[in-house]
Amino acid sequence: MIEMSGGPTVLDARTLPEDDNVNPYAYSIALHGEWFTAKGAMIAYYGDVSFAGVAAFASRAAWVASRFSSPLHTHDWVVASGTGRLVIGDRGYDIASYDLEDGNLTIRASNLLAFETGLELKQSVVPGFLTLLGTGKFLASSSGPVIFVEPPFRADPEALLGWADCPSPSLHFDARWMARSFAAGIQGLLGRESGEERQFDFTGAGTVLLQSSEATRADAALLHQIEAQTHVLDTADAVQLGQRLVARGQQR
Question: Does domain 20-142 have CATH number 3.30.200.20?
């Protein structure tokens, strides 16, 4: 028998929270039907629960294709179906639930963990982000607690988690920072950027979600998206891009 000082809290299907956090790093979904979940986010489940890839599920349920309109991310998501408790986690990152009511929210793709089927997922015009539309609950991870900020302001791209009911940000480069800081200039040559030299500029009304830390997760779909755009390059430009990427990787 495992013993812990202070007495352990042993959870089961009856004692797991219903649509609430188990702790800051895990969330318990009371599953009654279907949820979209990121592949690999499930850490445990109780009850009669099954999982199927979004592409496979869409072949027998047309509503899945109508709710999930992001081809680049199709292979990174599954549909969880059935009745029971589904526990979601993300490598020890903070996890929080959010409710949209006839809303429009764009979120970093690698931080979106799950969402109800009442929401529709679309590809954002900003690379690395997805947009949720409609009414329903979704789960997202973050590096530290989330901070809510109102525009106008500028954010470090790596600290940005998402934005709701406001225009997409524009990209701002601070040329004065580069001119003042020799170290920053060297980092730019090596392919490294910081929030002091490059920011997302938000204007208008709405709410912006920031992580408490600049740590970001790798996003395989972002690589696919960028790769798909390289077809517009001619051979010389493609070779030059490849050489720059190799040089950047060697410097890092």
Answer: no
